[in-house]
Amino acid sequence: MLKKERQAFILHSVNLHNKVLSTDLSTSINVSEDTIRRDLHELSEANKLIKVHGGALSKSFHSSFNNSSVYAIESKKSIAQKAASLIQDGMFVLTSGGTTIIELARALPESLHATFITGSIPAALEYLHHPNIEVIIIGDKLSKSSQITVGAQAIEKIKQIRADICFVGTNAIEVEHGLTDNDWEVVQVKKAMIESSKKVVSLAISEKIN
Amino acid sequence: MLKKERQAFILHSVNLHNKVLSTDLSTSINVSEDTIRRDLHELSEANKLIKVHGGALSKSFHSSFNNSSVYAIESKKSIAQKAASLIQDGMFVLTSGGTTIIELARALPESLHATFITGSIPAALEYLHHPNIEVIIIGDKLSKSSQITVGAQAIEKIKQIRADICFVGTNAIEVEHGLTDNDWEVVQVKKAMIESSKKVVSLAISEKIN
DNA sequence: TTATATTTTGCTGATTTATGCAGTTTTTAT
DNA sequence: ATAAAAACTGCATAAATCAGCAAAATATAA
Asked: Cα–Cα 20 to 30 A to B199, which of A76, A161, B58, B74?
């Protein structure tokens, strides 16, 4: 097999599978690993693929690797946009906490006149930035892990409320120091919220649904 | 699995869920926790995520607070230091809001075990950063100008409390321009706080006293 | 064609990298 | 305060890489 042929095969292979192992190529083409390594090095110099220890990665894989951080954010934003469009003037809106809810808060139009009720401190801060939104805080003990208020009093208050719509984020847990979490109380609060609302919207990125 | 591949997976995972546990990654990728830890360390060095004890957090949602815009920040800090020294372990502490109170929150020693009760959203966020502090939120309507909860329910709740000490910041009140309706409510809340506490401390920088 | 020059390939041994393991220290939770 | 979990350290091992060299293949010129 000619050198050029071999390199074409390697390129095809790496683009097909996103990655190749030097050992695999060596056995399948039946040349020494050194040759493969030299080929990979050349192709890497020619910017045709990314050489890594043990094999190589396709160019596209690398770029997605770099952009992946924005990707998740973008999809969160588009979800938030759609969710925000469900809210109409004069509504009473119940929300939990979490990053998706924060994005929702940021996606709210300036012109919206509505009342938001929440136990989430970060969400409340976001709502405050909107000139035409009334914010009502549900008081009680603050859960460090989820940054929302939890407890019997909070649940009691929620039960007294009749909201038009309720938004629940699936990723309500966000912590800075330590990652353990007692979700139970948070779940109780969410349950109460759902029961107090005419409509419930659950915000989630599709990849999360396993 | 290639190292780069694994790191890409980790990055994708952390951006999707906002947090990852080393143990989870270890079992799902089937490598030792040491390897995961090394990966997380590398990604953290490369500024791709934030490493914490037990796992890592997504970089995208890291709130950074700028206190540069706050007036006379240094003198407030020294006041805060003195005020913080008045709080002892096991105390129930009532606080209002305002920049001076925020500084007080930041001046609290890590070791302090106490319960803080507040209607201020920014203050609550600060208290959350302290590992040994319980936070209780007073719920009600949120006043946009002062960022604290005001209203009959809030006052009712405060009256039920017996606190050891109460900190009130003076900066929420603009004496020169008279009291607006909104400020009036804030004053009512402060009054209630003062009545519910054995000791009251008023935080002020000297320039404020006309 | 033959002789010579050039490129390519494989091999050997030294070097680097990746990973896991054991023991110790630090952090966190109870 | 104490126990458990996580992190760090140093080390061992196996795999991958590198450097140089010699054989093999290929190209080139007389």
From this structure: B74
